[in-house]
Design brief:
Length: 276
């Protein structure tokens, strides 16, 4: 066994998935005699990001993993296979189970009275929201949030149904330019079947579930679970009575919200009046 193979086995046995991914990148890059700058050119990123990925300090994107599989002759699709484990490491431990459920859901219903949900946030909006918690790994948190959104662009995306308070659209997170891009994204989603966007107008003073954001995930086997977005941790509920209560609350929310063909013009109006 070569020293390189021994080192690889040691990394695999002791490293986190993120560190292991980075070590595999370094081993393949050095085997090919490629510099970090050269790999960065192939992956459309800088030398410093390559160095951080190799040291396990940054979470790679799926695009980066695909580049590694394309560039390294001996990869054999290994980096795309490792990528979900590396990405999972970027999420807080309590949130990882939810992300796994979200990835396999066939339908996602979400309600939020304060913010755009992470699944539809732009990178700039996400950055502004996440930085308020003063995290040490802000860039990784943003990357992880953006990568979650790939479920909406795959060949068979889950059906996403959003119900939002009008105040969410008017709250100037990050300023006018950030909100303009965010509302344009929301507006495009509202026009993209099979997704649905409904807005609860500000004239509705009280409504079911107005105290906390929550969501319902549905699966091909017919079961549903509830995700409650709380502080300091969210949690998932699967008991039948909890799912039934959340389903009833969501049905009532869709009843008091504007229908989709009235919600879209409201988004347009707020975009023009507040953030043009």
């Amino acid at each position: 066994m070569s020293v390189e193979d021994e080192n690889a086995e040691t990394v695999a046995a002791t490293a986190s998935p993120l560190t292991h991914f980075g070590a595999e990148v370094r081993l393949e890059r050095e085997r090919l005699g490629m510099s970090r700058a050269e790999l960065g050119k192939e992956a459309c990123c800088g030398y410093s990001l390559i160095a951080k990925i190799e040291s396990g300090e940054r979470v790679p994107s799926l695009d980066f993993a695909e580049t590694c599989d394309r560039v390294f002759p001996h990869a054999g699709g290994r980096f795309v296979r490792l990528w979900p484990l590396a990405l999972r490491y970027a999420f807080p431990p309590w949130f990882r189970r939810y992300v796994e459920l979200e990835w396999s859901a066939t339908a996602i219903r979400m309600f939020h009275p304060l913010l755009l949900p992470g699944l539809v946030q732009t990178q700039e909006y996400a950055h502004e929201i996440l930085r308020t918690g003063r995290p040490t790994g802000l860039d990784d948190l943003v990357t992880a949030r953006m990568e979650r959104q790939r479920i909406l662009t795959r060949d068979t995306p889950p059906r996403l149904w959003l119900v939002l308070d009008e105040g969410v659209l008017r709250r100037a997170v990050g300023g006018a330019s950030v909100m303009r891009k965010q509302l344009e994204r929301l507006r495009a989603l509202a026009d993209s079947p099979p997704h649905v966007v409904q807005i609860i107008p500000s004239r509705i003073a009280a409504y079911p579930g107005s105290g906390a954001p929550f969501g319902l995930l549905s699966f091909s086997d017919g079961r549903d679970v509830v995700h409650v977005d709380g502080f300091p941790k969210g949690y998932v509920l699967a008991e039948a009575e909890d799912v039934a209560a959340a389903t009833t609350a969501y049905d009532l929310l869709t009843a008091v919200a504007l229908p989709p063909d009235e919600s879209a013009p409201l988004i347009d109006s707020i975009l023009k009046d507040c953030f043009s």
